[in-house]
Amino acid sequence: QSKLSGPELLCQIKKMVQITTLTQDMEPFAGFPWASQLSPRQLISDIGPFKTCAVVSSAGSLKNSGLGKEIDAHDAVIRFNAAPTTGFEKDVGSKTTVRLINSQVMASEDHHFLSNSLYSAGILVSWDPAPHSSDLREWYNKTDYPIFKQYQRYRRLHPQQPFYILHPRMEWQLWQRIQDNMGESIQKNPPSSGLLGTVLMMSLCEAVHVYEFLPSRRKTELCHYYQRFSDAACTLGAYHPLLYEKNLVKRMNQGSDRDIYMYGRVTLPGLKTLNC
Ligand code: NCC
After folding, report:
1. Which ligand 1 atom minimizes the distance to the CA of 60?
2. Residue 7 contacts by C-beta under 8 Å, 6 or more apart in sequence?
3. Are the C-beta atoms of residues 201 and 161 closer than 8 Å to each other?
4. Which domains occur in the chain, in start order?
5. Residues 185-235: pLDDT tens digits?
6. Among 56, 79, 80, 105, which residue has the most ligand 1 atoms within 8 Å of its CB, making it the best to mutate?
């Protein structure tokens, strides 16, 4: 298959990736006593549309970026997993509209997901690296981490905070876009939270800026801006097909290469603005 151009790729994503969250009426959930904890509506119909959105990767290269003010000037900001703002405002800002978390964060003891106030800002959206399947019943019986148990617990403790779960179909539809646009076979693991969040924001916003997903001149082996741990795999990927994801985002970028180099900034259009 020949390489698609940026605009063609954007249209493929618009047509072939459905951004769906679980709702109360979906099987098998509809039959469960806790179904009412799930939202009755889709995330996309509950929030937005926004004019401008910022996607803040957790990369170490955000450190000393001074991008905080610029990030906060967007109408909506998405952050990932345990990435904090307190103490890092100058570099990453303080606004959190959506926090996308993987099910490992929800389940692992060290993150204190149920009680840490880090998770109480904004709308929560979680996802589970489900096995290569989009069948809800199959997934429910074999999640990677206990996402549903933790979801129910969290909802009981924080019933007022909006909290959605991504349909695993989205992971694999997006994975397929990556695979079909690469010359070689990629690992059958879902895309990173960063790419999932980017596509989510492209469906909620007219224009999206993604920060330090494509590394700037500040590129570093430091994994996260908020931790001392270093590993180049955080930027290039091991489990997630990160290198391929970044390749795809580079192709879709409508900003300049200088923006990437100086600010780690990529500019993507909202999916609704596309004339496909
Ligand atoms: O590291 P993580 O991601 O939380 O980062 C969020 C997103 O930022 C982008 N990123 C991060 C670091 C870096 N140097 N470069 C980057 O581009 C990526 O797009 C990434 O998705 C995840 O995707 O959910 C991930 O989560 C962590 C971990 O589970 C959480 O941080 C909680 O501790 C995974 N790490 C491990 O499992 C050890 C990571 O692989 C992916």
Report:
1. 14
2. 274
3. no
4. 6-273 (3.90.1480.20)
5. 999 999 999 999 999 999 999 999 999 999 999 999 999 999 999 999 999
6. 80
